[in-house]
Amino acid sequence: MRERTFASSVVRVLSRVLPPSPPRRNGNNNSDNNNNGGDTFAVELLCEFTLSLGQGGGSGEGLRVEGGSKSVEQEGGAAGGRGGDMSNVLEDTEHEVFHQEDLPLDGFPVMEQIRNEGLLCDIKLKVDESVIQAHRIVLAATIPYFHAMFTNDMIESKQNEVTLKGLDPDAVEQLINFAYTGRITINVNNVQSIMLSSSFLQINKVKDACAKFLGKRLTPDNVVGIRAFADTLNCSSVVKESDRFIQKHFLDVSKSEEFSQLGISDIINILSRDELAVDSEEQVFNVMIKWVKKDTQIRCIHLPELLQCVRMPLLTPQFITDYVASEILVRSSHPCRDLIDEARDYFLIPERRPLSKTFRIRPRCFDDTVGYMFVVGGLTKTGDSVSTVEIFDPIQEQWRIAEAITMQRSRVGVAVMKKKLFAIGGFNGTERLSTVEMYDSVTKTWSKIASMRCKRSAVGCAALNDKLYTAGGYDGNSSLNTVECFYPERGDWFMITPMMKHRSAAGVVAFQGFMYAIGGHDGLSIFDSAERFDPSISAWHPIASMNTKRCRLGAAVIGDKLYVAGGYDGATFLRSVEVYDPITDVWTECSPMKMMRSRVALVANMDKLWAIGGYDGVTNLSSVECYDPAKNEWTDAPPMCAHEGGVGVGVIPLDCV
């Protein structure tokens, strides 16, 4: 019966695809023979094919494939006639490749249907009390865990049943379905079990999808638990995102039940971070003492090491006296009293402050510079100043034109304070400027604010402690050492302590509660020296010199390091990069940029450095490079679309634009 069914099927197929045979030569031209010519020919071919199978496919008989072409031969291998040998007509090398691109798409749903019907299954997965049937070849092809199990000489490769321990049966069932369909539904109820199971089975794309799902749903109440779960799975992306959330929403997270149940090592880890978003160090002390009092009997022994995480010199003397020194748990600990004395010495002997190396004098600063990069002013290829503003979206990697500033400015200073962008001073092609304008990201408009006391181009700018600072620059006659501070509540600029050197085209940044002025020139000499301003005592102090003298450099901060890049040393346009460690007071060489860049704008965004524009000694540049500190390498980024060089750059958080 099976042979007849197969034969009848072949007849039907051949009769559809082959043309009718010509009339027979014996003169019998009745209509029946003519109408059935195709079927007769099909039957003849079937007989020849069957004969060839029975005789082992001898030469000159039946259906054969040679050299990538197919030929149907008559008895004796005669050429011509129906299906004759085409080797005399076609070249042996002629061939075509047919590719059915949708075959996998069509095939996998059929395999899933076959599995659902329990057909051809050759492996059973036992998960808890559940048994899941599947096809060994499909699992090996789509799930790395099973590929390793079934293709190596392991015991399970010869078994018909495999036991998976410690996994959720529903999650495994969904992942097996995913192996056949490429689809899986993730929700708040199953995300943890699916993520755990996909991690075990090494289905990394599903694990990554779960990680993204969790990362979008962090709250002050769940972030501590999600971070702990992700850490057990070595999911660094969720751990990093959770850490950033905890830092940004520290006070709200500290009120959660999960936070109160954290162990001592986790609490120390959090309280030690520079990036906590707090208004004052008093808030950190209050969170710490609240955690201790949640279980005083057990946790009080950890108070000395916890109090070391609180930056006591940053507390006000009144707070130390009224709240810290008066706390009975603190008074009863000798190490805690020593920390109080250290803080009091900091206030009583200000001349020693510059010599202090302890991290406890370093202000906390949550870096929220993950946002749009605003490029302001600058130059054309011909050196003309412009008023153009464009924005780079680092997520989409695209530039777009934004609202222009009110006047042309090159060599302009730019700073961001309270999520507002300031364009300060510069050169309009005719004169140096003292004017300042502010961009409101909500109304998307520029407005003028009070002008500086001095005209300044090539000026250094920084925002520190909710104030704007401008340092040095060039007024059209000489390089400056003067420094100005803008008080928003007063709406005006005031002269403060000048720098130790006259510095034009220096790198100026706010870093760990200080303002740094690095390199630059005075019109006669180019400097490798640097100095920093302590606003608490309104004084400048020198720091270690760079390895290379440079003016027209870029400067920016990532984490606890300060970077400088590019510039000009008087003879060479530079592509070298250095990083400064304030703890060791040492500059170290980093991987150089790909291009020489003087007048480069350097900015930190998304934990990377962006070197934007500049001048290479021949041309004003529109190109951009991006530096990843983790890899110590530079890569090309999309070039600016409307600027060439001499630009100012600031970053406004994504959710503010």
UniProtKB/TrEMBL annotation:
Q: Please give the InterPro entries that the UniProt record associates with this protein.
A: BACK, BTB-kelch_protein, BTB/POZ_dom, Kelch-typ_b-propeller, Kelch_1, KLHL18_BTB/POZ, SKP1/BTB/POZ_sf
Listed under GO biological process in this entry are: protein ubiquitination
Kindly give the SUPFAM superfamilies that the UniProt entry links to this protein: Kelch motif (SSF117281), POZ domain (SSF54695)
Which GO MF terms does the UniProt record name? actin binding
What the entry lists under Gene3D superfamilies is as follows: 1.25.40.420, Kelch-type beta propeller (2.120.10.80), Potassium Channel Kv1.1, Chain A (3.30.710.10)
Question: Where is the stretch described as Disordered?
Answer: 14-37, 56-85
Q: Does the keyword Ribonucleoprotein apply?
A: no
The answer on whether this UniProt entry bears the keyword Repeat reads yes
* The name this protein goes by in its record: Kelch-like protein diablo
What species is given as this protein's source? Folsomia candida
